[in-house]
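Example S7 (structure tokens).
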């Protein structure tokens, strides 16, 4: 059975055709321009692929409430032409069942189905890239709630030596404002990738990421945390984050997972395909619901 996957991102749209076994058969990507231009290309791509269902993991915020009038809308994005855009309605031109969730929920689902959350009932996938966001799986279900978790905007305690104002227009000291890729670049005045040999950059970065993780551990209590996104290509961050997390928890939580932090806080396991694979699974689940 052929399934379609669309990872709808703020900079690019990744489209793939695969199957229910998590095999990707073809994949292509286009830049995210205006909805008119971009959506036509997406519909053209999928229209002759004989897919039985489509799974969409979208940038957002998005409305995930099936009972809401704006279900399937991208709501308040900084990308002006996509504000209040009815993504799902446009895709209905394909006349197939469409599963819809956030990009990060698709990633946590990909890892839960085929990756390093396979045998666990709960887990969190966090992307640290252009933005910061997290997909949360609890008892095998993707967490939605009132809107969906907006982990990137949790408030953090600023480092006493950090006087950078933060990049978020809403909050002076949120996770994304202080620790996203663009915030690193604004604070230090260089591309993040060119700061590799400056340990102070990554120590400060780990200080903020660890605070974010501690809050997630204390609220969702996941069995494992996966860190993905462009910034996490700096692999030296992992040991720094693990030790800072333990320092901040200060011995309060005693679980087998925390005694083995190398297996608790881990990199994404699906070669950066966790999102697109999660979209295939979203498609499969929607098809089962539809029957
Ligand atoms: P997006 O979040 O847009 O999907 P990415 O996850 O690739 O895309 O994140 C892009 C951000 O990650 C950029 O802001 C860039 O600064 C940062 N980034 C990309 N590659 C690296 C790297 N090797 N080291 C550090 N930062 C990186
Ligand atoms: Zn914010």
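Recovered sequence:
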């Amino acid at each position: 059975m052929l399934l379609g996957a669309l990872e709808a991102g703020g900079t690019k749209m990744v489209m793939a055709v695969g199957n229910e076994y998590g095999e990707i058969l073809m994949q292509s990507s286009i830049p995210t321009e205006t909805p008119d231009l971009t959506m036509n290309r997406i519909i053209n791509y999928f229209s002759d692929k004989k897919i039985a269902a489509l799974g969409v993991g979208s940038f957002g915020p998005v409305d995930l409430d099936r009972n809401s009038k704006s279900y399937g809308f991208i709501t308040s994005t900084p990308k002006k032409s996509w504000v209040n855009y009815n993504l799902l309605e446009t895709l209905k031109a394909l006349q197939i069942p469409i599963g819809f969730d956030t990009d990060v929920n698709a990633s946590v689902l990909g890892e839960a189905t085929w990756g390093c959350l396979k045998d666990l009932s709960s887990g969190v996938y966090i992307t640290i890239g252009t933005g910061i966001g997290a997909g949360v799986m609890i008892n095998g279900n993707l967490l939605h709630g009132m809107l969906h978790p907006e982990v990137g905007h949790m408030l953090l305690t600023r480092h006493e030596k950090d006087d950078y104002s933060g990049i978020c227009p809403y909050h002076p000291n949120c996770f994304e404002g202080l620790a996203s890729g663009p915030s690193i670049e604004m604070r230090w005045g260089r591309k993040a990738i060119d700061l590799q040999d400056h340990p102070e950059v990554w120590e400060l970065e780990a200080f903020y990421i660890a605070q974010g993780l501690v809050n997630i551990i204390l609220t969702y209590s996941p069995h494992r945390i996966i860190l993905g996104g462009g910034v996490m290509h700096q692999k030296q961050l992992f040991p720094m984050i693990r030790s800072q997390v333990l320092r901040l928890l200060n011995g309060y939580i005693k679980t087998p997972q925390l005694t083995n932090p190398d297996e608790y806080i881990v990199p994404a396991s699906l070669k950066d395909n966790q999102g697109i694979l999660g979209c295939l699974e979203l498609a499969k689940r929607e098809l089962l619901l539809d029957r």
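Notes on this example. The longest strand covers residues 12-19.
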